[in-house]
Amino acid sequence: MQLDRLKTGGRIDRTRPLNFRFNGKTYSGFAGDTLASALLANDVALVSRSFKLHRPRGIVGAGAEEPNAIVQVGTGASTLPNMRATQVELYDGLEARSTKGWPNLRFDLAALNDRFSKVFGAGFYYKTFMRPKAFWKYYERFIRASAGFGIAPTEPDPDSYEHRNAHCDVLVAGGGPAGLMAALVAARSGARVIIADEQNEFGGSLLSGSESIDGKPAAEWVNAVIAELRDRGNVTVLTRSTVFGYYDHNFIAVAEHCSDHKGERAADGVRERLWRVRADQVVLAQGAFERPLVFCNNDRPGVMTASAVSTYINRYGVCPGKRAVVFTNNDSAYRTALDLNNAGIPVVVVDCRKSGAGSLGATADAAGITVLRGHIVSDVIGRHRVSGIRIARWDGDTQSTFDSTIRIDCDLLAMSGGWSPAVHLHSQSGGTNAWDETRHCFVPAESAQANVSAGACNGHWSLKACLQDGIDAGAEVAARCGLRTMPVELPVTTEGTDNPMQALWRVPASKDPDRCPKQFIDYQNDTSVADVRLAAREGYRNVEHVKRYTALGFGTDQGKLGNINGMAILAECLGKTIPEVGTTTFRPVYTPVTFGLGAGENVGELFDPIRKTAIHERHQAAGSPFEVVGQWHRPWYFPQGGEDLHAAVARECLATRNSVGMMDASTLGKIDARGPDVVEFLERIYTHDVGRMKVGRCAYGIMLREDGMLMDDGVMARLGEHQYYLTTTTGGAANVLNWLETWLQTEWPELKVYLTSLTDSFSTIAVAGPKSRDVLQNAGCSIDLGKENFSFMSVQQAVLAGFPVQLFRVSFSGELAFEINIDSAYASQMWQILMESGKEFDITPYGTETMHVLRAEKGFVIVGQDTDGSVTPVDLGMNWLLSKNKDFLGKRSLSRQDCVRDDRKQLVGLLSVDGSTVVPEGTQLIEDPGAPKPVPMCGHVTSSYFSATLGHPIAMALVSAGHRRKDETIYAYLADNLVVPVTIVSPVFYDAKGARQNV
Amino acid sequence: MFLIQCPWCGNRAETEYRYGGEAGISRPKDPDALSDAEWSDYLFYRSNPRGAHKELWNHAQGCRRWFEVERDTVSYKIARSYKLADRNSESGS
Amino acid sequence: MSDSSRRLHGLEFFLRSQQRPDTKASGIHARILDDVTHVNLRGNSNDAEFNRGVEKVLGQALPVEPNTVSIRESHIYWLGPDEWLVVSKAADSPGLATRLENTLRNIHSSVNDISGGQVTFTLSGENVERVLNKACTIDFDAGTFKPGHCAQSGLAKASVLIGCIEQSRTFELIVRRSFADYVARWLRHAARHHGIEFR
């Protein structure tokens, strides 16, 4: 039974009843309801327990500002925590739970906190749980269990979310009277318009009232405007779409909720859509929030904002009580009194102003409504539900209170403390706000970006003023877009005259503010007047500090109801004015958004690009696991018959050293550099004498950052007098090209050099091992591969197996080796041909792991593994690469004081003394295991493997002053306090003379 | 997210660009003639002003050109952007 | 031509793994082009000799207006003030690059055949822009992004070159080879509600 449903009225569809469950009980509502309106229709007053004190709480608002009715909607993987019941559209089968209250709402054990609330004042957590320090881990568990607003699902999200980038001339945030008017004016001027509103239908405040426009119900006017906007090809109309973030340069984020209101997955599977809008101009028309009044026990279920009560009556056909009191300091709440009266609910108005209201006051009197002018509500009676109030006479001029004993029975208290424009987006955009002394609110002042605020959002309360402000805003932004607007007639509305609001930030109580029943400012965070006063007494002066000390303004509602009251009360405590105290910073997001919305479609295999070489499919077919290097997926090793990593790598290493191995090295960066000044240019980049290279020769080159640290390395080849072919590390390819272009464009534009990336165009296959020459010969090679014709470190063009290739005689394994550069369109075939040609030598494909072992046996470094951006070539023992004949980038830094310290970490080899322990990479090295803790560290292991070729582990390390400490024993400090002695040796473990590669 | 005008490609989203830090830092002609302190000044020290700031941006995902932008470090407003070749003229827009 | 000498764009496996093609009326038609010739060209377009040489080989002038593509025998994309991409449907690799290089031999310029390093898609269908705008910040408004217009930008987490090449909202999408599989998978996923078929 929907006990509190009115007989008629509302925008609900009474022919479509819907069943839903709340905290395990089944209720029914109608299509068009929100969860909140349906709960109120079912006379459910108690919806949650408060955050800290676990006081019983009911629904206060009717929109984004709702602080109490925070629910968990749905079950399983699609469940959503942190939902405001006022913004959850009802659907059949909806399942929701309170996110607070244990074991159940009516009997909440933690409500004992309220009994001892004196100890739960501001800063309670800070003061109590700091000591003893070791106990924090126990405290934390308790706090986390008792705080928070719901549970995040742990299953993978079954829904999909999408992003959409959009561009427009004018974005209108908010579809109330001002926003609609602005959109209409801008659209008629020909502007590309996007209008977004967070609700399921347009109209904003018009949906909650009973006003008429042009002599007809306002809804008809709204429908006509929307119809025209939809008809125009230049307007995108978005409902259920919250403009939640205003970022730099008019970049606006909008969350469109596509399917949650249906309670089932949408046909196209999209649950939410993130609109990333770049707008030339923005109209901000998000309306205003009604402020609560701050009086004793103002948090009891049944105390609501007046506008929310009107919304429930007019929009949802629900009256949340049977006997009502309206408590106000301004005229707008008289409309609520009239709405209640029209709905047949007895109502008394308590107005703190001696003069009462303007024309609405006369209407109320004429309707026979009792209006107690010059009165305040001093306390609320009832715990789980309002059962009555106490009132007192109050003189606003002298601020004095008299006789506080009169009691009025009621179960609904509608309050209005005035209105605060929703300046959130304006503030997010960097705009300033100014305190308006007559309207008692912050209104937008200076805009920091291309936007205009309009309507209630701009401090206008009357419908006429809002419509006019919308027209003006629409014309203004269209003109800024260079468009001509046609005059638009102001729709006809009926307007009364209002009396000024009376500022009443804290309602006087019978006792002093620190001893009286709690007067709440921020319901969601249980922040009361006493807490703010305590913070002020303890020395907090800055509003941002008070916010963090008292939690005022945190949570899902971000202080939409409480902030202004809180700041005004703080101002009173500090003896300052409200503008002197100022507001806290408004930041995105306006209302909570889901993680799914942020992730969009960048999930699963699309989370990050998987770059594949031209031979990828063959590696996959061969069963190779892949190692991610940058975004590349490189074959890691090629297991045979159930081999693990170590067995496969040992086999691959031995095969390469003893016969022939082959690897896909296509991920190396490749750059074509040419032009008359290419030698001069490369001389300045690389450390060695580039110009001395003869055409057809290769060289190992390194480049430094200007601070002298190793940046990248690779083999380069001189292909012509004015043409070089540069290779880079896999991860460094993009950076190196950018680095070279940067110097050419910014410092040396006079150098005639062109660079082109060839990384993807050419694939590289390395064939290494004593039999590598035979493999190429078997495949059919157009050139003589013998040492005399094709010596080590040279390059030649050739035709291999019928394909044109660029053949390099270089080696990263220390063996006789060839690197075949081939058009990527043929690389896959070439791999297969070489596998066939090498069959008689049992050619063995190997992956990155074997490559690492082979190069470590030779003492070759890997940039980014053996270096970390703080290592110079001198630290690596590469002095032989540093030309004395020229300047190059980073050279000057090598003689900086810090770079010539004699205790710098230097590259060395390490051998485990026990001959068997493979010390994990990253292990810290120490000199004296007996030293008192913290033990000083003298270095760390950068590379470490078991060498199958040598039959023992090898490692590379950076060790303080390592170059002059050969044969010393130091210690590797392993996990579990295990200490392993290691001996410092040369990092070249195998074939130190380099005989094997030079055959 | 900024909207930055590439002098060639026009207005594009910040995600297409790479930031290059303060503009107008030239590499010293003869590094060896500098003291450690002078060299460090070139290497590490930047002006970091509050307000107008000339900085380098590269249209990394577009034409790959470097150019200069005059941006307010408080309001993030971009006053103008111009090609490096135009850095000494006021003709940039 | 035997199979082993056929040029591969690398998405053969992706195409084979394509599930039941979904061809709704509003669907998106994606083609992965075979045997396209791509030549990267760098030079000074203020140098008349350079321009003449290029025009002699290509039969069309280089576009000098940023973000435009010259659509004739070849599609010549403006990539930067001194850089262009020549896309030829004729299977002419490395012949085209060789001819250009020979003609420009004595002019400071750079010609590189990068056919094997890039993958060319064409996309058509009424929702193409909408799909692209899921993960690309370019404004594809038909009023401004017309035939002959192109842009280098990001699509999801890959760098792409997109050109409008026909009145019927047909787009050419060019990506680096190593990113092509990612981009194809992204397109297949992003366009799934519209129906997408790769050929």
Describe the structure concisely for a colleague.
The complex is a heterotrimer of chains A (999), B (93) and C (199). By secondary structure, chain A is an alpha+beta fold.
What does this entry look like structurally?
The complex is a heterotrimer of chains A (999), B (93) and C (199). Chain A folds into seven domains: 1-153, Ubiquitin-like (UB roll) (Roll); 160-288 and 421-480, FAD/NAD(P)-binding domain; 296-416, FAD/NAD(P)-binding domain; 505-594, Arc Repressor Mutant, subunit A; 616-665 and 761-843, Gyrase A, domain 2, CATH 3.30.1360.120; 669-757, Aminomethyltransferase beta-barrel domains (Alpha-Beta Plaits), CATH 3.30.70.1400; 858-877 and 899-985, Elongation Factor Tu (Ef-tu), domain 3. Chain A is 22% helix and 28% strand. Chain A contains 23 helices and 49 strands. In chain A, strands 8, 9, 12, 13, 14, 15 and 28 form a seven-stranded mixed sheet that branches. In chain A, strands 40-41-42-39-33-43 form a six-stranded mixed sheet. Chain A has a six-stranded antiparallel beta barrel with strand order 44-47-46-45-48-49. In chain A, a hairpin with a 4-residue loop joins strand 22 (388-395) and strand 23. In chain A, helix 21 crosses helix 22. The longest helix of chain A has 18 residues, at 463-480. The mean pLDDT of chain A is 94. Chain B is mainly β and 93 residues long. In chain B, the strands form two sheets. In chain B, strands 3-4-5-6 form a four-stranded antiparallel sheet, with no helix packed on it. In chain B, strands 1-2 form a two-stranded antiparallel ribbon. Chain C is α+β, with helices and mostly antiparallel strands and 199 residues long. In chain C, the strands form two sheets. In chain C, strands 8-9-10-7-1-11 form a six-stranded mixed sheet, covered by helices on one side. A five-stranded antiparallel sheet of chain C has the order 3-4-5-2-6, covered by helices on one side. Chains in contact: A-B, A-C, B-C.
